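Weekly modeling sync, notes
Attendees: AB, CL, MP (scribe)

Item 1: holo prediction request
CL wants a bound-state model with NAP before deciding which constructs to order. AB pointed out that an apo prediction alone won't tell us much about the pocket. Agreed to run with the ligand included and paste results into these notes for async review.

Input as submitted:
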Amino acid sequence: MADEIKGRHKLIILGDGVAGLTAGVYAARADLAPLIITGYESGGQLMLTTLVENFPGFPDGVMGPELIERIRKQAEKFGASFLMTAAEKITGQEGSWRVHTPEGVYEAEAVIIATGASARMLGLEAEKEYMGRGISVCATCDGAFTRGKKVIVVGGGDSAMEDALFLTKFAEKVTIVHRRDQFRASKIMQKRVFDNPKIDIIWNHVVTDIKGDGTKVTHAVLRNTQTGEEQTVETDFVFYAIGHVPNTGFVKDLVKLDEQGYIITDKYQMTSQKGIFAAGDVQDPLWRQAVTAAGTGAAAAISAERYLAEREHTNA
Ligand code: NAP
C-alpha cells in the first residue's frame, strides 16, 4: 500500500521543527491548508534544549519544547494538519510532487523541506554497544542520569558549552575534551564555562575509543592531536556535542546539495527544483539559530504561496 496516493494538497511541509512550523503558520494563514509531515522525532532540535535565551520576545527565556508547542498550536489554529510519518523520497515533476512515506504517497503542488539536521557521531565501534548506555547526543535528555558521576563532553561550540554547564547540575565532574586549543563557542558561553569550578578542559585531544563493562561506559581513550600520545581516563558518560549533519539523504538525487550535504536554495528559499523550497537547518550551514530557522520558514511559505498563486493565474 506504500505506493497508494493517500492525499492531494497544495502544500506539504516536511518537518515540524521551528522552521517547518513557522512555514506552517504562514501557509495556513494564507489558506493553503498545509499538511505537515513531522517525521518520527517530532519538534526538532528545540525539543532537546532547555532554556532558549535568545529568541526575540522572551526576555526571561522560553523552554525549547514550550516554544515548539506554542508555534504548533498557532499553525493548527490557522488550519495546518499534521501526520506523523517520515518522507522517504520525493518523485514527480513540477506541479505534482509525490512525497513517499511508509503510510503511502502524498501529492502536492509545492513542498517545503524543513527536515533539519541530526547529531554528528564520532563513528566509533563503541557507539553500537553503548549509545544510550553512557554515550549520548542529548545532555538535556540524559543529564539526570549523571548524578554524582564523571562525564566527558566532546566539542568546542556553543552546544558543548551549554551541555557542560547543564551537566554540572548533576555530575560530580565535567570534562570538556576539545580537538583544538580554543573554542569556537560565543564568548559569553566560554566565560561561563571558564568560571565554573566543576568543569575541566582537556585541549588538543580527540576521543578515539570508548570502553565499558558490557552494560555501561567506564573509560574513554583520548589521543593528543599534537603528540599522538594516548591516555585512558575513567568516565561514566561521554556526551557528543560535535555539530550536526543535514537530513537530506532522501532528496540527494533530486535537489542540489552543497559539499557538506546542505540543500542549496536561492533567495526565495527555492531549491534547484521548481516548487520545492527548503527552510531551517537543512539548508543552513551558517547560522543555525531558532530565529533564523523561523525566518527562512516564513520566507519559504511566502514564496510557496506566491509560486502557487502564479501557477493558478497561468493555468486559469
Ligand atoms: P558547532 O558550532 O559546529 O561546533 C561543533 C564543535 O564540535 C566544534 O568545536 C568542532 O571542532 C567539534 N567537532 C566537530 N567534529 C568533530 C569531531 N569529529 N571530533 C571532535 N570534535 C569535533 O556546533 P554546535 O555547538 O552544535 O552549534 C551549532 C550552532 O548552534 C552554532 O551556530 C551555535 O552558535 C548554535 N548554538 C547556539 C546556542 C546558544 O546560543 N545558546 C546553543 C547551542 C548551539 P572545531 O571547533 O575544531 O571545528
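Recorded for review: The chain has two domains: 5-118+244-315, 121-240.
Action items: CL to compare against the apo run; MP to circulate these notes.
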